[in-house]
Amino acid sequence: MFMQENSKLIMMEKEEVWKVLLKLGIPTTIGMLVAALFVSVDGYFVGNLGKVQMAAVTVASPLTYVITGIGLLFGGGSVYIAKLLGEKNYKKANDAGSAIMDTSIIVGFVFSAILLIFLQPIVKFLGATDTDMVYAKEYCSIFAISLFFNLFNVTFNNMLASEGATMYSMIAMLASGISNVFLNPVFIYTFHMGIRGSATATLVANLITTCMYLYYIAAKKGAVKYNFLNFKPVREYYIETAKVGVPLMFFQLLYSVSLIITNVLASSYGDACIAAIGIETRVTSLGFMAISGFTKGFQSFVGFSFGAKAFNRVKSAKNITLILTTAFCLVCSILMFAFAKPVVSVFNSDSQVVSIGIKALRYYSITFIGMGVIMVYSLLFLATNQVKYGGIICLARQGLILIPGLFILKVVLGMQGILLAQPIADASTVVLIIFLAYKVSKKEKELLLQQVKIYHEKLQN
Fold it and tell me: Which pTM was predicted?
């Protein structure tokens, strides 16, 4: 009975590494791509309303990354749960999972409430101008409610990955994405809701995913049995969650902060610059989400294998994932560079927006080749208790390198500098990872030599 109910755990323990990675990674990749796609669909429909409306939605976009960052904080518990499952400590996995999900629900409610109460000053802080303030407030007043459900979805999506249930997660995200595609034109044009229609479509789409996840929990379909009434806020659960979740949260929050700074700096060049950057962000998020989806399955597998002390499987997973993600990034880079003009033009026909958007997309495409390296090593370090190195990577790319770079490059190169800041930060992060990987490899070799020396001394004695 146990074998049948937990076949996914047996798969992670016994099956060939490359097969497990594909089974975990492909469904998650599809789901994440659909999620990114419906963000792009939002941009397409809103972009047709005008560049001011597009700028208003771009101003609100950092809120998504903030809530995703909080979701990743709690979702960091998925690595801890994967390790518990690898150790076959199922009761502790149940208790920890329930505590983490309950806490995320409480935080999500508080976040949405604060956003609704202080809507105008928050929107102003995010970079809204006098021309797009009204639209930004209209959008965010509805969008704030959807963020509550979004936090639940991001957290539980990670939890599903910890037990290998990526197929169900993909189905839930597909349902959300497809419904959003159909509901956007209905609410915007048929019901004449304008920009509020786009926010309403996002709210309904997130709610659909939440309902599907609640059904999964109620039906007790997974290896982890969640009980929201069994709230045991044990200190260990949060410490272990924070080890992985805090670096991932800061990675996402710093991305949000960098977007806010980018929007504020770009606002001095007008709504066209803000809109162009918003388009570039939506397009590049497709490739980024695909990599994130595949490496999410990789992270869960590494956490499970590390907990089961199957270190050879961890090493094999790293090598295979590096090859696959780098090949994918190379293809994406070529496509983004070659088809920048038609892709940007789909979102907005304004000549100034298109001109700036082409530059932004092509600059980003050059360094996107290294995105697989960044994602694989940051998650590998976090999942194998090398939190310091994983944290350094997460803080460096979007914070320590990018944010100062935005200010410096704007002063030196103007608008061009704003567009070049992210590609330069990505290239610098890859160089940093090469250094850290070499340092870790050197330490592992030294440790192995010490173990061999101790073994030979025991034989001699």
Answer: 0.73
